[in-house]
Design goal:
The complex is a heterodimer of chains A (181) and B (259). Chain A contains 8 helices and no strands. In chain A, helix 5 packs antiparallel against helix 6, helix 5 packs parallel to helix 7 and helix 7 packs antiparallel against helix 8. With 259 residues, chain B is mostly helical. The longest helix of chain B has 32 residues. Classes of the chains: A mainly alpha (181), B mainly alpha (259).
Chain lengths: 181, 259
């Protein structure tokens, strides 16, 4: 009886989840002008500072233990917020890239495919880093992941710039500026 | 009070309606696939629809209505169910490939996720199905229902995984892929729900469950027919990169300075 009820509940919940995802898929970013309104600028320098191993070692030396732990928690929280913003932006870039993949201009279509691939890599890297930032991983491991994420994010940024410049060069700088603070 | 034969006749006519509706829906989905040249993109789905058109014709022909031995209908139906289950798994694999293959970073992840989830869900499904075994009078039917429940759990889990990965990674699901996945997802969810309800109501409500499943299949067919229609891609302004951009800026700046 209980098992049957669980199956019914699971079936209904999965059904609702699918419908929700399907409805969400309709809201797409298709034009470059749509991007700045949705993106969150990421301050890369500040983010790298937050996960810097040397900076952490310096703080550990300078501050007392309690103060350092408290500060470290806050730094990790801030770093997670940056990573979440990068993940959000990567999702936007992916939507935009998918819309541009069918562009009749092969240069735009190729660059959009590259942008989609890079955006996915950024999103995966963000997931991994959020997990690591939530667990007590050593600073060196975080720094390595963080640098790799920044490198992918910058690659996505330059690819976006190329895609927009091929279509509307006048707005490329303004649109791209909405992704890096 | 309705006459004794009235409800039976009503059942038969409703059943026929569902049957004809499903046959037409399958044919329409098949023709849509052919018309919009999507057969190469979804070969397994095409096989699934073709198989179902053939199965519908066979089952219609083998119905006890036409004084054909019942065993012929019985075996055709259950062999058809087995092939249908195998094809559904193949379609889910096809959908995973269509969703993840365009992304180099996800190609392996999609494959691994599908296989790992299938293995875990198969184990889970047999545990669930065994725990919920309903003592049917017919032992063969009991085994068939256990297998049916197991496949429902696995299919529902795989469709859920597909939607979960797509939503978490914000992967764009092309409307054909989305439509096919949604159709199978709805079918799997209703199958799972019916399997759960059957443990409570027993075989007495099988007719109602059969109607529910067949009506859901009609809905899935409607979704598949609708999703095959191609959408026009958004037309953006396409310019080539101006080669003399700096020269123009320079000229404009000189003009401004001269003024």
């Amino acid at each position: 009886m209980l098992g049957g009820a669980i199956l019914v509940v699971v079936g209904v919940l999965v059904l609702f989840f699918m419908v929700r995802v399907t409805r969400g898929a309709a809201a797409a970013v298709t034009r470059p002008e749509d991007l700045p309104g949705h993106s969150i600028p990421v301050d890369i320098t500040a983010f790298l500072n937050l996960i810097d191993a040397q900076e952490q070692a310096f703080l550990a030396q300078t501050l007392n233990r309690r103060c350092f732990r408290k500060l470290q928690r806050q730094r990790r929280r801030a770093a997670r917020a940056y990573v979440r913003a990068a993940a959000h932006n990567a999702a936007l870039l992916l939507r935009f890239a998918e819309a541009e993949r069918d562009n009749p201009n092969p240069q735009v279509a190729n660059s959009a495919a590259e942008l989609a691939g890079t955006a996915i890599s950024v999103r995966l890297a963000c997931f991994m880093l959020i997990v690591k930032l939530s667990l007590p991983f050593p600073a060196a491991a975080l720094h390595g992941r963080g640098v790799s994420l920044v490198s992918s994010y910058e690659h996505a940024y330059y690819t976006l710039d190329r895609v927009i410049r091929l279509q509307q060069p006048m707005i490329a700088t303004r649109v791209c500026a909405a992704f890096i603070a | 009070m309705l006459p004794a034969g009235f409800t039976g006749a009503m059942d038969l006519s409703f059943s026929n309606l569902l049957w004809v509706g499903a046959a037409l829906g399958q044919l329409a989905a098949l023709l849509s696939l052919l018309r919009y040249k999507l057969v190469r993109e979804f070969p397994v789905f095409f096989t699934f629809l073709s198989f179902h058109v053939l199965l519908t014709v066979l089952l219609w022909w083998f119905r006890p209505y036409f004084a054909v031995p019942f065993s012929r209908y019985f075996y055709t139906y259950w062999i058809g169910q087995a092939v249908d289950t195998a094809l559904r798994f193949a379609i889910l694999h096809e959908l995973f490939a269509r969703v993840f293959d365009p992304y180099q970073a996800l190609k392996r992840l999609g494959n691994i996720a599908f296989r790992a989830a299938a293995a875990i869900l198969i184990l889970l499904a047999f545990v669930v199905a065994g725990a919920l075994a309903h003592p049917d009078t017919n032992k063969v039917m009991d085994v068939i229902f256990v297998l049916d429940r197991s496949t429902s759990v696995v299919q529902c889990g795989l469709v859920f995984l597909l939607f979960l990965l797509a939503s978490q990674l914000r992967i764009f699901l092309r409307h054909q892929v989305l439509g096919i996945a949604l159709g199978f997802g709805i079918l799997a969810c209703i199958d799972l729900t019916v399997a759960g309800l059957r443990t409570h109501f027993g075989p007495g409500a099988d007719l109602v469950f059969s109607y529910l499943r067949r009506s859901t299949y009609l809905c899935a067919l409607a979704i598949w027919v609708a999703c095959m229609v191609p959408r026009k891609p958004p037309v953006g302004v396409t310019h080539s990169l101006p080669e003399n951009d700096l020269a123009e800026w320079n000229r404009a700046l000189l003009q401004l300075l001269n003024n």
